[in-house]
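Cross-posted from the bioinformatics board.
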Amino acid sequence: MKSSVNSPFNRRLKRAREQWRRKAQADLSIAVGMGTCGLAAGAEEALNAIQTELDKRHLTAAIGRVGCVGMCAYEPMIDLQAKGRPRFSYGQATAENVSDIFSAYLDGEQLQRAVLVGQVVPASMKSNGSCLSSLSFVDPASQENIAFHQKQRRIVLSNCGLIDPESIDDYLAVEGYQALVKALTGMTPESVIEEVTRSGLRGRGGGGFPAGLKWSLARKTQRWPKYVICNADEGDPGAFMDRSVLEGDPHSVVEGMTIAAYAIGASHGIIYCRAEYPLAIRRLEIALEQARELGLLGEDILGSGFSFDLSVKEGAGAFVCGEETALMASIQGERGQPWPRPPYPAVAGLWGQPSNVNNVKSYAYTPRVIRLGADWFKSLGTEGSPGTAVFALTGMVNRTGLVEVPMGITLGGIIYEVGGGIAGGRKFKAVQTGGPLGGCLPESYLDTPVDFDSLRAAGATMGSGGMIVADETTCMVEFAKYFMQFVCDESCGKCPPCRIGSTRMLEILERITSGKGEPSDVDRIRHLATGMQRGSLCALGQLAPSPILSALRHFEEEFWAHIKEGRCPAAGCRMLVRASCVSACPAGVDAPAYLALVAQGRYAEALAVHREANPFPMICGRVCPAFCERRCRRGQIDEPVSIRQVKRFMADRYYSEPWTPPKLARAKGIKVAIIGAGPCGLTAALRLAQRGYSVTVFERMPLPGGMMTYGIPAYRLPREPLFAEIDHIRRAGVEIRCEQELGTDFTIKSLKNDGYRAIILALGAHRSRKLGAQGEDKNGVYHGVQMLRDIALGRLPDLKGKIVVVVGGGDTAMDAARSSWRLGAEEVHLVYRRERHEMPANAEEIEAAMEEGVEFHFLVTPVVVLGHDRVSGVRLQRQQLGEFDASGRRRPVPIPGSEFDMPCDLLVPAIGQVTWIDDEAFSFNRKATFDVGKAFETQVEGVFAAGDSVLGPGTVVQSVAHGNQVALTVDAWLTTGQLGGVHYQPKRHDVAQLFNLDEYAGARRPKAGTISPEERRRRGDFAEAEQVLEERAAQEECKRCLRCDLEWLERIGEPLP
Amino acid sequence: MDKKTTMPINLTINGKPVSAPEGSTILEAARGAGIRIPTLCHHPDLTNVGACRLCVVTVEKARGLQTACTTPAAGGMVVNTESQEARETRRFVLEMLLSDHPNECMVCETNGDCELQDLAYEYEVPWPAAGATHHKYEVDTDPNPFVAIDRNKCIVCGRCVRACDEIQNREVWNFANRGFKTRLVAGADQPMLEARCESCGQCVAYCPVGALYDKMSVGVARANKVEKVRTVCSYCGVGCSFDLNVRDDRVVRVTSTAKAPVNGMALCVKGRYGYDYVHHTDRLTKPLVRRDLLSSSTSDERRSGRSSDLVEVDWDTALNLVARKLTDIKSSHGGDAIAFFASAKCTNEENYLFNKFTRQVLGTNNIDHCARL
């Protein structure tokens, strides 16, 4: 082997570097992202517009056509750099926006439509002097990395977006082919393998097999010719990592394959690329031609005596051809079906000859490993999985795109920090890694490090790099079904377990998602899964059940809700979900029906529809967090229909009109006692009274209503409508006895003696949780629940001129803070241990509190209550967010030494409430709520529990839902003796659509009037802040409803009303 | 190659020490030792593909089940063919196959001679509950006069495909589509005869189920109703042997047998399907001679012109007559006055004797053969 590189190559190298330098110093240089993604978004047109713009401005520029930088939402993207100025990257750079961008960059004008993505900092120098070119994006003002890039470490994607993939000179200028030179001139094949082995590089196709070991096996087989094969048959749904490398940096793959060929002794290589990637194929062909021209492929490469050439084979797009044996069968012109191993490809692969198959990225890492060394590579990632991982991050995250992160980053890190969390403020539900052969992981796994072994141990796989994020609106059965459908389409058909098993599995999932599942189906799925895993020939069939099994493992309840109740809890199954708003409402109130009726002015009927499922429209019209609106489909277009406001409007129309709930059954002469006159107890009482029971409600406070009366301040829920609606319940024949306390005035036993056949405990959650801070029993520690109760009882605390510190982030904390402000407190502070977006309180409440001047302090927690016998202040400790906890939120971790004191006169803890009963016959769970069975039964026969005392502190509508359900199961138990087996299903109302919906395409959600904060403060009373909608506004608002319910009728084949 | 010179492999199967020639698969080693492993896609004549998954066995230290038909036996290997996992998997595969198989063994040609049926019985696989999607292909749509196809019964084992490729070298069959929609097609989904088929029926012979069957035997030739009579084919001199399937003294089907020393399972269209002449009314079953050559012919008969009619005689009479006439001709005109024409339907031995007889006994070289044309 010659010791030096031949001169034509060196001359070309010198020229390429010179050109690169010149380009960087051009008066104006422009880079246009022209991957498939950019082209699809209009990069070609943008390029033309750039030319026009340059002509108009009489400018010339060095224009680079580069690959994709992975920020899908911003395509097409262009970078501008004028001499001596920073390089800026702009997104949404369509042809129309180009001149806008030029004006912004060159003339300093305001951007109109395009987006400034960030300042681009290319080409960083490594400490060892070698250049590891890459792009990083920083905020032009702060010079900090933009969020999407903060946690990224781009190795294999480093050239994508930086160089022109069709120019070998660009590649040479960024140290391209230097690794090949190093290998051919200074290393033996064995030492190349040794270096790769030592680097710990594992195959990036999904299996994670050590690349060095694979190469050494192929080297050992003493038969020629040998082949190196690149698996570019990327086929996971939503995954496009390999495409991006092939389109953005094809030479890195060519160089890597040539090094691999040298190492194993192969003379020919084949890149098997799917025909759906025409641009990748074209750029590969160009790269091969350029490499041949420079003598980097062909006979006697760089005078080393080593000969090697490459060709591209187009695949027809079968997913199974990503399996190496099927891939080789396909190259041989056979049906793309796998064959059993052994023999392994290293022994007998393509045409029966020793072959080495690796993924695109595995080859693309190779030149970097050889050039920068195994130690450099090992310094990235984890010990077992060195280097980086490339993911196509898709689904319900804010920032989708192609990301490259160091191995070992947590799933939560990718989703929340790179991906920016869940879109639309919704809740994270699961993340699927490994595509259709991977698995899904719920929020309790967000702490899982992303590497081959940790993911496998958690029950998912790395796969080739798809990462799909599901939020709370995703039905996991439907999610699993999607992947099984994919497997059914892509099963090659060779072996029966996969060919038939996948179809049988899909049939079951289809049955379940259309509400026709059978109780045996869950076992049947497991049976099929085991058979497929054990019996299938290749990984496709063996791993195909993984998504379903992982969904079953983490979300089994969701399967049962479909099977037993015909209900899709996530409201994702099209056949089961009439309208998302109805599914989202805990009480299942038929919102589309009453909206349609209000639109027609039929208010009384609308109200009747509401009361069937929820007897408190006036109350909920004021205080409901409106779960329905969060799921409203109109919200995906502009803003959700203002369902709560309409509810309040229609209920307030009949403000003073007494309602007598209809009797649904004849009097049974059976007595039922309900303890607690909150929303749950009252609803249960109403439903049982309607069914003919004699119901007595026992309430320990002087007034009924529970937390509605004693927990929600009057400025949110005025007393008049509250008591009016409680009177409706009385009118159904329910007797409410106030100031009757369990254990004092009566006992469970005495009730039974008095002939009550069933007893429902709806005690609520009134006991405030303790802070766990030192000295919290001091005078001046005034729990939020107590404060609100005192206010409701008219015992207004005098807060004039006082400093109040409220602790907590829930609704009680907001109510306590806003009430303190109304009572004239000098300063109201609210401290919360997490961040704002993690507060469980209603967003509108938080906003109103801020508006009213409550001062918020995030990431702090009280540790010591200061003062002698009275509170004089509170010592707070700053927190930082650590790992993810089981709720999918990041756990606050104290920062030692960060304590500081905040003076105050009153400390108001409001960090949660628990239920409490002085009776050892009942058992409680970890959340300190009643441990009840599926029929709400407690450990004492005939005694049931529901509402907040089971759920923990919740909302009115959740308690109403519980009231409906517990009444149903108590009725069933009293009539049949059976516990459970009944499911509350509110009646469906089909109301006609009488106007043209298209006319309301542009209509906007109205804003209800409010009293200004100054006015509220000045008045100091607890008058209602929010105003009711005008009649016309309410009617018009109803017409924004998209009537999902009618679409569903069509879907299930029933006639429209 | 002399097998005795290769090193035998010693392994353990089901706790029993087994020795097998080098290059054997686990299946071959097991069968050599009298241990049965069920198969469907495997056939000793054909390449192993590991598709049907019935021959899965447990191999110690190997990850997951291995297919016995493709895994090479290795020294020291410990194999269990009847592990719970292997048996459960086989049962699962059979359950899957039955879930897409018509429940019509009652009217199936292959009933009683069906490998799927035997295995379903052995593994006690219940008939699956209704409700699963079944293929509903039209049956017997190919105009081929001999081979009928019922894709509903096809288990996609690919034996027909390999038999056609590897034995007959015609490459008529292959599979179209993927997954559950995988479907056996001739050529580019053409009629068989347009896809180079020469109707040899190898595909039928290798089909383990009733997906490919003999059209001429429909309704008459179920395995338990016929008697098999081994015979040599009378069409040509190759000497293929096969079994005549006889029912009520009639040949209703021809089946090939792996035991045939010359041809194995292979037959040509004539041997497999050309048996209808056996019971043809035109077929000669006794020697016939012209009446006037018999000494008993009367002058009346000669006058009436009936003297040239053919008369049934016994073999001695007929052969004596031929011998007498040949002797007469040779003595009066010499051997070259006679010419002999041999038949390709005779065996090589018969033709050899015929040649000797012509040249040595009758002393002439006037001999030819129909196959020389």
